[in-house]
Write a structure and sequence with these properties.
By secondary structure, the chain is of the alpha+beta class. It has 11 helices and 22 strands. It has a 7-stranded mixed β-sheet. It has a 6-stranded antiparallel β-sheet with strand order 7-6-5-2-9-10, with no helix packed on it. It binds zinc ion (ZN) (2 copies).
Length: 419
């Protein structure tokens, strides 16, 4: 059975309602259509109430939950208690410049819906989700990030939006808000070329796990180790939000390279991309306490994604690495008729079959010394030899973990300076 039949989220409408909550509930809204023509539509009566020339429309809150609409101060049109939808019509560019109360103006694609709410007027941008993402993605990632990182970030943001479409109540009468509670959105002004390109190149693609959109959380820099969602927030296990080394055995973490690229301080070569990435999983309890500026460290490491993209990995590989076991699917609205909706499952990153390494309680120096004393190491007296010995006794990934670890007996865990 095709995925689209099983997974209802893929059928979500292309147009979404973004509550302009950051503009508050002012008494007046001013709308200027870029084309000089406006269509005003009564959403409840399903009929057009005005269509024609307009430079500026002023909507004012009236007593009794009604609103007055004035077109170019020529005449006050009507009193309404229903939601009105304002759309610019005519020659492109088609957008609306909107000013709430005495605040500064913002320009939006799509249409603006205005309705009375709690004594004021609520503004909602009814917009194509793909256009919405063009404004959201630049707020979420380093603007000069390489293409594949922009694409991975776009898919994470799209998945997040689709997953949270019912986050606000029916009473709110919008699906997502424009604040950090959902995703920061400020319309056309925030758009940049690189992100818009990534939106077009990944049109409609989201990450799914089972029958639902995945929980595509991300953070700015993990410091070298992604942690399990349970270590960050408790709760149930999320199979694709596991703790693991942010890189490949024998190399520096991806975010180490990402940060160098962001700061233009890369000297020397990047490692070559590998065909298959083995994920060096950590224990679910592994958690470092020292990174206070790096966010929650669950899911995608944004600097790591930039590092992977710069090394030469594509967005599929980046997403497979940070959300292992998820699958890419395409929203139905973005699928040309007759084409299959699902993408091939991602296989480029595979989980290890070995016992997870515990970062919460790494072998302490006493153990290392005991091994050294026992003379069983390859090079007696060598710390490196002792570490190799431990790794051979345990999992094949321990060595990688330990090489990156600098623990102190009083404070086991990841040190501040793992680079
Ligand atoms: Zn919200
Ligand atoms: Zn990282």
């Amino acid at each position: 059975m095709p995925l689209c039949a099983q997974i209802s989220c893929l059928n979500a409408s292309r147009n979404i309602r973004i509550g302009l909550v950051s503009q508050g509930l002012p008494d007046t809204w001013k709308i200027e259509p870029s084309s000089g023509f406006i269509e005003i539509f009564d959403q409840n009566k399903r009929q057009s109430v005005y269509s024609g020339k307009a430079a500026e429309i002023v909507i004012t809150a009236m007593k009794g939950g009604k609103m007055k609409v004035a077109v170019d101060a020529r005449k006050s049109l009507y009193y309404f208690s229903n939601e009105l939808l304002f759309s610019a019509v005519g020659r492109p560019p088609i957008n609306l410049k909107v000013r709430a109360g005495g605040r500064k103006s913002f320009s939006y694609r799509g249409s603006i819906a205005i309705f009375p709410q709690s004594g004021g007027l609520r503004g909602v941008n009814v917009v194509d989700i793909e256009d919405y993402l063009k404004s959201v993605v630049p707020s979420e990632i380093f603007n000069r990030a390489p293409d594949a990182a922009q694409q991975a970030q776009t898919i994470a943001a799209r998945t997040y939006a689709i997953r949270n479409l019912s986050r606000h109540s029916d009473k709110d009468n919008f699906q997502l808000c424009d604040k950090v509670h959902c995703q920061v959105y400020s319309g056309i002004a925030r758009e940049i070329k690189a992100a818009s390109k990534a939106v077009i190149e990944t049109a409609g693609k989201i990450l799914i796990y089972g029958n639902s959109p995945a929980n595509t959380v991300y953070h700015s820099n993990c410091g070298g180790y992604i942690i399990d969602s349970r270590a960050a927030w408790k709760g149930a296990s999320v199979p694709y939000l596991i703790g693991h080394f942010d890189g490949i055995s024998g190399h520096k973490p991806f975010c180490y390279y990402g940060k160098l690229i962001k700061t233009n301080s890369l000297k020397g070569k990047l490692p070559a991309p590998q065909k298959k990435i083995r994920i060096a999983q950590l224990s679910s309890a592994a958690k470092a306490s020292t990174h206070k500026n790096f966010g929650h460290r669950v899911g995608m490491c944004q600097d790591g994604a930039i590092g992977m993209a710069a090394i030469g990995y594509g967005f599929r590989q980046i997403l497979a690495f940070y959300y292992p076991g998820t699958q890419l699917a395409t929203m139905r609205y973005a699928v040309p008729t007759g084409k299959p909706v699902e993408d091939r499952p991602i296989v480029v990153a595979s989980l290890p079959q070995t016992t997870p390494v515990s970062l919460a309680a790494p072998p302490n120096p006493t153990q290392v010394n005991a091994l050294r004393r026992s003379g069983k190491t390859r090079k007696p007296g060598s710390i490196k030899g002792a570490l190799r010995q431990i790794s051979e006794n345990g999992s094949g990934y321990t060595a990688v973990g330990l090489r990156k670890l600098f623990w102190t007996p009083g404070e086991p865990g990841i040190s501040r300076n793992i680079y």
